[in-house]
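Reading a protein record of the kind used here takes only a little practice. The record below shows the convention in full.

——
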Amino acid sequence: MTKIIIFYIIWVLLLSTSTAFANNLEIENISLTDKDSSGNTYDIEFDISWDNSWYNGSAAPDNYDAAWVFAKFSKYSGGSWSEWAHCTLSSSDTDHVAPAGSTIDTGLTTTGKGVFIYRDAPGNGSNNWDNAQIRWEYGTDGVEDFENVRIKVFGIEMVYVPQGPFYIGDADNDQEGCFFTADGSFVEDEVGLPQYTITSEGAITVGTSSGNLYYDAETGSTGDRTGPIPAAYPKGYNAFYVMKYELAQGQYVDFLNTLNGTQQANRVSAVTAGTFMDATAPGAGTPQTRNGIVCDIAPAGSKAGVYAHNLDEDGVYNESTDGKWIACNWLSWMDGAAYADWAALRPYTELEFEKVARGPQLVVDDEYAWGSTDLTQAEGAVQSSGEETEVANTTGNGLCNYDGVGTDTGGPLRAGFAATGLTNRLQSGGSYYGAMELSGNLMERLVTVGNDTSGAEIGGRAFDGAHGNGILSAGGYSDVATWPGYNTGTTIVDGARGSGLRGGAWSLAETFHTVSDRSIAAVIQPDGSAIRGFRGARTAP
């Protein structure tokens, strides 16, 4: 979500907007306080709130949810506004002011890209914190005291995944390409010991010798079955944060509306006014599979266009029924990588995927992300379609948006559609650590263990967990050199080698939705589609 305020570095011009996503994360009442002219800093003050929050303390699972908060600025210079740039925040926790009941943690933000805000004591329910302050080092960003500046503040709901060992694989090794522990006598389709234990971030040997990690090749879509998986590759043992929800359409529109026209044209197919986001340029004339992102004003060269929502096709943009809370499909790997870089996050790996879903618990045979084999299809008419209260027409344990071809669902649902303040893990379809829709809705674009660097394009096992820095290339691509698809010739992420897909989607059969299924874990699918979304992560201290 985003809030915007335009201010002069000397005085404030009041202008604020309000939006909400998923569990209604809102940032309001933005202002600037405590200017330090000698240190060239300003405190950005705001109120922040969201629903269905928790902090478990020592109770299992030992985790909490948080908001990743960062800001962008644009300054008025030479008669026009500059392009949006990432605000450099102080990397010292003590420079920020956390409201009573909350903690502000810079985490691994030594370059000041954002902060985490979360509860400071065990509890659950809604957060409503006023007068939070994050210190902006505007001098570092080249802003002079006399210049006029616009500010946008963004928040993304995350869940914290603590350090610790966990299992990967399946109880009887019958899921396609699932991980298992080799027993030294591997025969295709007659695999070794079930599951494998991740006990550290150390390198993992992949092979058929007893005790090694291994997996079936199946049709070749699960990976090359070689290694090692290097120590730098994030395995999920160390603590990290992951987005609580799949990237929502409203969040993607906020992203698009901070890019210049050239960048926008590379990040969305809809580049003609009135067209909608899909897989082809200039985009379709009607929403495709519940994606209501529409081009309001077309980009023209480097001049930015304007993007909005119109799922109900009534020509009135950004109404409550226009779908901004629905998970965003039609995202290519390059789109997801660009969003993660822009937000100072990173992609997450398929090992981390299994950790987020299962936690430290023993493997349940053929389990879904909510830890059981219960499965209820979200089918029939969608209630409150396109609204922030959108829900499926069905209820039940393991409620999941899957196998939806031919039903009224016809696409992804609202991120977190099955969760309320009263639902438990099984009813909400939540993972062990509280991430939603790891099974179903949209496929998770992940970093695979199934290929390495070859030639000019970076592969999966070369990924070292580097974070984005909030800055994209001139063309709107991520430029993090160790991310899958990074091309050493073009110096941008313009390919998808090293990425893969897991977790199932709204149109796929139930077998794709199990935690251990790896049937397309190493398939290179660069383009966007109706069933592919994105979820980012960030390493914790």
Helices lie at 249-256, 261-267, 333-342, 350-358, 425-428. Residues 333-342 form the longest helix (10 residues).
